[in-house]
Amino acid sequence: MTSEIVAEIESEARELRAGGLVPEGLEDELDKCFEDVAEESLAAAYASATRTSGAPRAELGRLSSLVELRRQAERLVRRRFGPRLRRIERRAALGARRAAEAGWIQLHVTADRMERLAGHSPLASRVLSTVRPGELAVPSSAARRPAIEGALLSWTLDRLGSAPRHEGAPRPVLHAECGDGRLVELLAARGLDARGVDPGFSARARGDASTVAGGALEYLGATPPASFDGLLLTGVVERLRPGAARALARLAARSLAPGGVVVLVSARPEANMAKDPVTADLALGRPLHPVTWCHLLAQSGLLDLEVFEPDASDPDAREPELFAVSARRPDQARDGYYDGGARGRR
Amino acid sequence: MRARPVRIDQIIPSIVERDAVSHHTLEAQKVLHSMGFVSEIYAGNMGPGLHGRVHLLEDLPREPPERQWVCYQASIGSPAADVFASHPGLKLLDYHNISPAELVERWLPHLGGEVRLGRRQLAELAPAVEFGVADSEFNRLELEEAGYRRTAVAPLMVDTTNVFSPPDPRLLERLAAERSGGGHDWLFVGQMLPHKAHQDVIKALVLYRRLFDPEARLHLVGRESCPAYADALHRYASALGLAGAVEFAGSVSAGELSAYYESADVFVCCSDHEGFCAPLLEAMHHRLPVIAYGVTAVPETVLAAGIVLPSKSPVLVASAVHRVLTDAGLRASLVQAGLERAKEFSIDAARRGLVQAVEQVLQAA
Fold first, then answer.
1. B174-203 residues touching A, CB cutoff 8 A
2. Is the pLDDT of residue A150 over 70?
């Protein structure tokens, strides 16, 4: 029965067209209108991504004016030449789309291969950078690791300086993947016994006692328990597979002295993506979501989980590139009975 | 007859509450328990509220096939597929479809890479999987095309909280107040993702308002999972002068969802790709006539219980809505057929499908 009704509905639709009730070109105009707003929205998303990664504002202004200029030119041409140009326009759009698709496919193939190489390498945890499919969408800015600065820097340094002093000698604060050691110096300037470890050349080149060369996982794995009052994790946390992320959380908890604080700073995973943690965590090689890190740190026996959130009223901080999570290892004086993180007074 | 294993564990890339595949996985665990198997869920990532019910993937036990089977819930590319592939146990795969990359990557480049990976992993897993289960015939055929030797259809275990929750009274009141001014209410439910093609429902609404009912409204319910696409839809509605006629409800509670279903006059779906489309069945359960573009698994889900259109030309969709809303006899027959179709997808029927699939594997030599 339904096939007969569909045939009748098709016939009614044809009659509507034939009767002139549906203006010629209206459906094409609806399609075109959506393509226009789609381009505006994608340009706005691109501008938002580049603004938060520090692209010069003049460049963004130029981008907006180019979009507007293109729209004006299109309107003029449409008015002057009308339907004759539509066929040419469609062909050009089809050609451009095919060229773009071919480019995308090649980029995805390359990215997938690099992902697999990194995943199967015994040095996977030391890979300094991994090309991820999504990063290819924002060509120039995403490859650069954003600096920890401003409110995030203050928050990070405050947390690491807040670990309550336990009985006995104070223990150092370690920055795992410290890069050129800038944050190690800032921590030292606050009177902390700060040290750094990094798998890259900059730590080796530095060659002083405060920084040494090495991967974070290996270094923490070889360190005796309760070695640090503070632990700052950056860089490595963005490139771990799920199992390694859990191992890192456990190693971090193990390496902290009672009352010690860990701060983890990572790129946000969800730019241009769904905002819920699970969807954000789906991709190979994409940084984990703050909520996921909270779960992992809590499962490792740490307390007082806090997530650094940017000031929502600050227009420049709408899509911040970085987030931070801090947590504290329980200690007997403050939290009551402590048996290694599995139980305690909560 | 194959030896009965002690345990059948499930592997899922990511699990979160109020998600169709996640809900299906939790229901499947209950079915496996009822069959006497030890069964746990192991996820690459888990959302809040599931801790204790779901384990992390690295805790998955690795036992031989006579003691352990593993079932992979496949819906996207994930490292969890590698864990599944390398597991020594007998392997089952439950396929929920993977959206084609070309429909999503313009808006979500990350997701484009993930779905490409998912398709590749699906093909790579085929030789290792003993039995493939799909939640629609459309999905089962994709499994066959990917090289799976033995397959069967076992329906999705739909989240019945969406269907049976009492409607939110405040929302019902607001929607009734809107209706008092005249005009019919269209409804579409689905995450705001590009392959759901919300823009095509809006286009059809433009024609419908112009031709038949200038006061008609459209309610779009579903999480705005792609900010750029959602932004484009908001801009589109404004550019067409429909800002007051198109409601972007976003993610809603089960009670609010029931209220939208109860208040609407027609459910309109113009998706370009659906592996099953549970909202079609929810609409039928709520006595809502369904009009849908007949692509991918949609015709199979709807069958004769709705109007399945061969194209989604705005004039055709608008004409179909007009016909359904003005032909009382047709509307009544669609509602009745929808109620019967929805019953065929009851949770009990879906559970029986999974039990039969497991028994088929047990009986295989």
1. 199, 203
2. yes
**Mean pLDDT, chain A, whole residue set:** 71
Residues 6+ apart with CB under 8 A from B49: B17
Q: Are A326 and A167 in contact (CB under 8 A)?
A: no
Token output for B148: 């799976």
Spell out the residues 6+ positions from residue B160 whose beta carbon is closer than 8 angstroms to its own.
B347
Mutate to test the interface with A, among B23, B110, B229, B238 (most CBs of A within 10 A): B110
Q: Report in angstroms the alpha-carbon separations of B89 from A107, A142, B195.
A: 35, 41, 36
B104 lies within 8 A of chain A by CB: no
Residues 102 through 141 of chain A touching chain B, CB cutoff 8 Å: 104, 108, 111-112, 119, 132-134, 136-137
In chain A, the residue whose alpha carbon lies closest to the alpha carbon of B209 is: A22
Residue-by-residue pLDDT tens, chain B, 365 positions: 778 999 999 999 988 877 789 989 999 999 999 999 999 999 988 877 787 889 988 889 999 989 999 999 999 888 889 899 999 999 999 999 999 999 988 888 878 888 999 999 999 999 999 999 998 899 999 999 999 999 999 888 877 667 778 999 999 999 999 999 899 999 999 989 999 999 999 999 999 999 999 999 999 999 888 888 999 999 999 999 998 899 999 888 889 999 999 999 999 999 999 988 989 999 999 999 999 999 999 999 999 999 999 999 999 999 999 999 999 999 999 999 999 998 888 888 888 888 988 898 888 75
Other residues' Cβ atoms within 10 Å of the Cβ of residue A10: 18
Supply angle C-alpha B42, B45, B48, rounded to 5: 105
When CB atoms are compared, the residue of A6, A281, A283 closest to B309 is A6
**Strand stretches in A119-271, DSSP E:** 173-176, 194-198, 211-213, 228-233, 256-267
pLDDT tens digits for range A239-265: 676 567 888 898 999 999 888 999 999
Question: In B, which residues are within 8 Å of A27 by CB distance?
Answer: 203, 207, 313-315
- The reply to whether residue B228 touches residue A41, judged by beta carbons under 8 angstroms, is yes
φ/ψ of residue B73, rounded to 5: -90, 105
Q: What is the pTM of this model?
A: 0.59
Q: Note every long-range contact of B29-34, with CB atoms under 8 Å and residues 24 or more positions apart, other chains counting.
A: B31/B351, B31/B354, B31/B355, B32/B8, B32/B358
DSSP secondary structure string for all residues of A305-334: EEEE---TT-GGGSS-SEEEEEEE---HHH
Please list every residue in chain B whose beta carbon sits closer than 8 Å to the beta carbon of residue A277. 16, 45, 47-48
Q: Look up the ipTM and state it.
A: 0.86
Q: Which residues of B250-279 are buried (b: 16+ CB within 10 A; e: fewer)?
A: eebebbbbbbbbbbbbbbbbbbbbbbbbbb
- Tokens, residue A138: 């924002």
B110 to A16: CB separation less than 8 angstroms, yes or no: no
Which residues in chain A are closer than 8 Å to B86, comparing Cβ atoms? none
Contacts of A289 in chain B (CB under 8 A): 45
Please state the φ and ψ torsions of residue A196, each to the nearest 5 degrees: -135, 155
In terms of Cβ atoms closer than 10 Å to its own Cβ (0-12, 13-18, 19+), residue B289 is buried
- Strands A303-308, A322-328: pairing is antiparallel
3-state secondary structure of A136: helix
pLDDT at B110: 76
Tens digit of each residue's pLDDT (9 = 90 or more) over B218-230: 999 998 888 889 9
